[in-house]
Amino acid sequence: MPQRLPAIIFFLLWLPLLLFAQKPEHTISSFENLPSRLFFFDDTSSAIYHDSMEGNIFVSPDEGKTWKRADDIPKGAALMVIEHPFDNTWAFVLTRTNTHYRTDDRGRTWRTFEVPIDVALVARPLSFHSDPKKSGYILYQGTVCDRSGWGAICHDETYMTEDAFASKPRKLLSETTRCQFAHSSADFKHEAHPDLIYCVAFDTETTGSSGHSLVSSRLFSSTDFFQSEKRAEDLGIGKNAKGVIAFAIVSKFAVVALKDLSPGSQGDMLLYVTVDTKTWAKAQFPHASSAKLRENAYTLVESTTHSLAVDVVMQDQGTIGTLFVSNSNGTFFVQSLKDTNRNEMGFVDYERIYGVEGIGLANVVANAADVARRGVAKILKSFITFNDGSSWSPLRAPEKDSAGNRISCDPEDADKCSLHLHSVTTPHNSGRIFSSPAPGFVMGVGSVGPTLMPYAECDTFLSTDGGVSWNKVSLDAYKYDFGDSGSILVVVKDEDGVSEARYSLDSGYTWTTYDFGIKLRARALVTVPDSTSQKFMLLGQVALKDQKDGVGRFVIVYLDFIGTRNRKCTDDDFEKWYARSHKSECIMGHKQWYKRRKPNADCYVGDKFTDPVGQEENCACTDDDYECDYNFLWEGDKCVPVGPEPIPADVCKSPDHKYMGSSGYRKIPGNTCTGGNKDDKIEKPCSQAPPAEGAIIHQTFPFPITDRKFQTILVRLKDGSIWQSSNEGYTWVQIHPELKFVASGRAYLITETSVFYTTTDSGRTWNIAHAPTPPNTFRAQVLRFHPDSDKLVWTGNRDCDEVMARSCRAEAQYSRDNGRTWNFVENYVVNCAWAKDVKLDADPTGILCESYRDKLGSQKFFMGNNPLGLVEGSSYFMKKRQLFKQVVGFAKFSEFLVVAELLPESRSLDLQVSLDGVKFATGMFPPSMHPTAHASATLHYAAYTVLESSTGSLFLHMTMSEPPHPYWGNILKSNSNGTYFGLSIENVNRDDRGFVDFERMIGLKGIALANVVVNPDDAAVSGVKQLQTRITHNDGGVWTSLMQPHVDSYGTTYTCNTVSCVLNLHGLTSYRQKSLSTPSIVGVLVAAGNVGNYLAPYDQSDTFFSRDGGFTWEEIRKGPHLWVFGDSGSVLVMASDREATDHVFFSTDEGSNWGEYQFTDEKMRVTSLVNAPSDTSRRFILFGHLPHSTTTLAVHLDFTYLTSRKCIINIKDPGHDDFEFWIPSEERQEECLFGRKTLYHRRVRYADCVVGDRPKYLPRIEKNCSCVRSDFECEFNYYKNDNGECVLSPGLTPLPSDRSCRNGSWYERTAYRKISYSSCQGGERLDLGARYRCADSSDPDEGASAFWFLVTVLGILSFLVVAYGFYVWKARG
């Protein structure tokens, strides 16, 4: 015992010191280069340092205290290192050879494995299975190159291993770009086969292409590692599921990005999403936002398990975006935040706060318009959301600075005094920017004021309540990290060299400085990923002068704070911390709280590698916890039905019975609120139940209607009120009954004031917006739209409040954010519009304005002495130039910009045509057909009409007869650039409104119908026009009469059966049906007309039908009818257009057989029938009015239940399904139309089935044909004689030959030119005359002169070279 007494005394003397906290400890390790990767194995103390410059791997088993190079891996071999995300013992080092390395003990030892091909240089060459039982299942992406000569053709292949490469891997699939297990994410939960694999790969087998064309890139899947099963995912769109760019699993969503390869697409990207691997749905973005995904112009940002978040580039400036957030299945997106900040690499200033539902931080560009307009530097502001992006607010600034003094601005004024933080686009540390798994702790570097200051001028801020409130904890910018579940905060200055770190043990209230003995510039500060350790690694760069005592250029400073506290926390040291305490504590129906150490508790948590567990307390249900049920949608603040509610069979045995149906609402999936009853079933009459199969239903809504829009249908009444139906006419509500609207548009309602209303969700909600001026009362269109974004041009009245205002004028302003902000364009204008159009490839920032020269006085009283010029302004009208001094107007048609230039001296018009809005060419007309300016302005505007054009040429109707004679004129057609116009057809009918009996067929370009006056001489005297119908199948080159049917709809032979009897149809001047064709079924025409020598009056007409593009016709009903197709042609509905009726006719076989449905007891006069714009719905709206009544009725007709059988489509065996491939030329001798044989896909006529949203296959060109006479038309100054030959017009001269050298030769111009829309090749080339080699000439003397001129020039040059050489020789002696 005496021997032990000194030891006891020694211990008692040191006991007080042991009870007090000690300082941190540190060690320093040196490296040659900065790491390309520095990471911990999850939930372990082992770390990896990859020096990619030297190709070496370093391993630390003790959180960075000591390091050792991985000796099992040769020096310089490590190309990349990848840890296993689901097994924290494995990592893989990939090299530039076929030999790679694996560790299964966290880096202590490494063993080799072989793969037959080199690793692909992609971001993620390995893909892992998430099932712990299948952790050895790994996909390896490699590259194979076939070398030929100096080059090589390479493609990627994917290999598969089931034992982490312990055995030889086998090839999975070739021609791949990315393969991934469906089970590769903890959040993506589904019931799919455990071995399901997705691969983005090139389909070289079915396309027959050996190259990697985008059209052959598809998403494939297999459940047997592609041994016998290789399924092409059709994404619900069939063969159109091609052009796949990428595949990714984000949170609980699998997302496929593909490029839209359909005709007319501008390379937009499409997203398809699934949450169960079975059903794919297209991601829908709001129409009014004009959101279009483009390659490398969108980013899938950090998402929740409730919704998917996508940032889309919306501005011309590619570093500004808009954040969209989806619904629970990732398909319908709403705009969350405008003008988000991005960088060139696609990174977005957006980050969710870790572990706390609903909170996120984002930066927006406050001066987005100026950045895109003038290229100025961006000004950023920070915002925070507490409800998953539904709303955003500024970050509340701290009231005091780090020294306890009040800040210089008022935090209550958030516009001028809020906190702004640097974010993802400018990272200054590794890992997450703001938060860590430490509950509620958020740090950032930023500034207080109106906008974000540069990083070097910023300070460091801390929030301990998830971003609700903030404190300034340090002057200057610091790197920061959290340890021991938030009980330790460590910061290191980030602006210059330092040798010390600061740390806080009481949640940032007090700070202590620790000197680690070496001056360095901090590069990163990290700890274990779950922030539960008390040890940190500081990565730094040491200046040469400070590299002493064996310290290298780059160092890891290991910081150990274990000794700073000597007591482990007990239960009394913890408190409940509730998240999201901003406005409401509940989200998704529950409160969320964590157990967190009290700030003043002097203890350490010590739960290393234990993630904080959030606890939930359910909340009482509120309206925010519900969404619309199936078959319902939001309209204002309530859910309304889109049609009859589906109910189980045999529930309703009588219309008098009741059934329990949906309230219209359902609890949001995943919501845990309690006590709500908004989704309880309610009792409904069986009269609201869906009818039996084969039945038709209707519903009538009366109101005095004058205008309408659809699919969400807007109706403007004579009294200026607006009515809306969001369910194809099933129910109607009035929008803002207190206001009167002067116009209505697709998504804009314009009032008589500067206030207008806009909807971004198809009318479910309407938002108030403010224009700079009231709408104009001149002849200018108020709103003009841009095809690529939500840019607007508004033309309104300025200073026109008084009747005799002295300076009343039309003023144009533009907006780039859907009317939120406006910028001045021009004063005293008539028409201002964006230069760019869907097909017109003009400057996207250009604006065109018809602007008066003298900008003084009241525009109401301007006369002809103030010329109207055309001004173009690029860079949003910042750079202006006058295109023409005096114009009548301009318009855009397809790819053409057409300007009517007025020439005052000759009192005539020149037609100026441009394909880019910059270069213009004057339209050349036959001398007798030049558009002449008449004395009367009214007659002047009616002198010509530019017709619809879709085949690369302009069609122009030139009025040749006008009062006192009846109206008619000639149709002229231009060449491909719109400059040379030739006669296409004479004496085409028009009326006094300027409407022309000319219509192109929808879906089949180059086919058009026109009515001609066949008695022009007699009509000029009698005033009575006799009309016949002509049709062209080669874009106006040849016009023929319509072939009459053999029998009428009763099977009776027509009384008119001579060769002069033809079919004649009413056109735009006399038929109330707006179009004779439909986009939903190719080749079909429906029209009212008669068989006879001439066109009979409308009330004496019958209804005719063609399903082969107008080659043959049949009569389908007696009398004229209004008509509409539904469901891609499977339903045809007709209503009499001659008298009042109480019924409609319907056909499911394109008019061969008819049914009849009575929709009213009292007959009404039908004025129109409408469907969705694409004619794909089986629901229709019939508009009409009762006799002797001003009330207009809207009748909703629902043919949905005629049949429930869905059409079968089998592209590999088209003869045995419900569809057919149709060739437009199959009814005539010529095999080709427009120089090619094209197959079109459409429903078989007698297939009684529902097409629905079945994909339509694009037209397929089988082959290009040899040229024949029908592929040509008359050249400029030529006309077609009675024999069908092109001859020179008397007194005119042909155009000179184009001697441009092509393939070493040129051809003399002939009387013919090839139709621009024709793709014929070879054959009979009527447009090519005598051929000359480019060195030849038709004038021998001219060729001789050229030869001697060349000899002379070469002789002179030779003399000069010799003389100069002699001079140099003499000068040098």
Can you describe what's shown?
The protein is mainly beta and 1373 residues long. The chain has 7 helices and 99 strands. The strands form 26 sheets. It has an 8-stranded antiparallel beta sheet with strand order 28-29-30-31-32-33-34-35, with no helix packed on it. The chain has a 7-stranded antiparallel beta sheet with strand order 1-41-40-39-38-37-36, with no helix packed on it. Strands 10, 11, 12, 13 and 14 form a 5-stranded antiparallel beta sheet that branches. The longest helix has 32 residues, at 1340-1371. The model is unreliable at 1-19, 705-711, 933-942 and 1337-1373 (pLDDT under 50). One of its GO terms (biological process) is Golgi to vacuole transport. InterPro entries: Sortilin_C, Sortilin_N, VPS10, VPS10-sortilin, WD40/YVTN_repeat-like_dom_sf. The chain crosses the membrane at residues 1346-1369.
List the helices and strands and how they pair.
Elements: H1 5-19, E1 25-31, E2 37-40, E3 47-51, E4 56-60, E5 68-69, E6 80-83, E7 91-94, E8 99-103, E9 111-114, E10 118-119, E11 126-128, E12 138-148, E13 151-161, E14 170-174, E15 176-181, E16 197-202, H2 204-207, E17 217-222, E18 231-232, E19 244-250, E20 253-259, E21 268-274, E22 281-282, E23 293-294, E24 298-301, E25 309-313, E26 320-326, E27 333-341, E28 350-352, E29 360-365, H3 368-374, E30 380-385, E31 393-396, E32 418-421, E33 442-449, E34 459-463, E35 471-474, E36 478-483, E37 488-493, E38 498-504, E39 512-526, E40 535-541, E41 554-560, E42 574-578, E43 590-597, E44 615-618, E45 626-628, E46 632-635, E47 638-641, E48 658-661, E49 665-667, E50 682-685, E51 697-702, E52 705-709, E53 713-717, E54 722-725, E55 733-735, E56 741-744, E57 748-751, E58 755-758, E59 767-770, E60 783-785, E61 792-798, E62 809-815, E63 823-827, E64 829-834, E65 847-852, E66 868-873, H4 874-877, E67 879-884, E68 887-893, E69 896-903, E70 908-914, E71 920-922, H5 937-941, E72 944-946, E73 955-961, E74 968-974, E75 981-989, ...
Antiparallel strand pairs: 1-41, 2-3, 3-4, 4-5, 6-7, 7-8, 8-9, 10-12, 11-12, 12-13, 13-14, 15-16, 16-17, 17-18, 19-20, 20-21, 21-22, 21-23, 24-25, 25-26, 26-27, 28-29, 29-30, 30-31, 31-32, 32-33, 33-34, 34-35, 36-37, 37-38, 38-39, 39-40, 40-41, 42-43, 43-44, 45-49, 46-47, 48-50, 51-90, 52-53, ...
Organism: Roridomyces roridus
Domain VPS10: 46-691, 711-1339
Signal peptide: 1-21
